[in-house]
What we know:
The chain is an alpha+beta fold. It has helices at residues 37-46, 93-98, 152-157, 190-193, 211-214, and strands at 3-7, 22-26, 49-57, 71-77, 79-84, 107-112, 116-119, 125-131, 137-138, 164-171.
Amino acid sequence: MVEIKKYHLPPTHLIPNSPQPLLHYKGLLSEPSKRRPEDIHDTLDGNGWETQCIFRYGPTQQSHYHSRIHEAMVVLSGAAVIRFGVADTDPDPDKSAWGGAREEGGVEIAAAAGDVFVIPAGVAHKTHDATPSAAFSLLTPGEGRGIPAPDVREALAGVRLSGFTMMGAYPKGCGSWDFSVGGDDVGNFEASWNVPRPEKDPFLGDSPDGIVGQWTGSARPKGRTP
């Protein structure tokens, strides 16, 4: 049975976060045979989610969130720490990763190959301490907001994984992801909070163990307000 961890992240001064919990399916795909990108794509596609990218992550990145779309992130290789729920307070991502230039609060989660995260719209995330060390790179064709290939499954099968890599997928028909940083939506956090829940969980489908049971209707999150 999959281990599911839930994290309720209240809004900060700069980040909407969400009334829905961040879900971490720890070790869901821990067996290497389950981490073939093309097979993962088949599962996502069958549950109404679109594979849009595979990125290899560098040492760190800017904290950001997707303001109008939910995201599923699948760790394909490597390990890293992912910080959720707070904004950077310095444009230098190194200072925010290791120098304390960030908002108070949030949660840091050790991510390993086989983990899956289902991230509600509005929840900030930032990857750092990625191993093995490698340069940041998009590994799939296109610009990361969809895979422009005649056969997406074939394109994914051709990806060679190295370093810390994650696949990003999003509910079908909801467009592509944006890259919002702290402060973008102050005064309009409700737009992220009210993004509709997808019909199915990206991996658990109709099971109440996934978002079908864990995400309720839209509601104003508790905690700090903008």
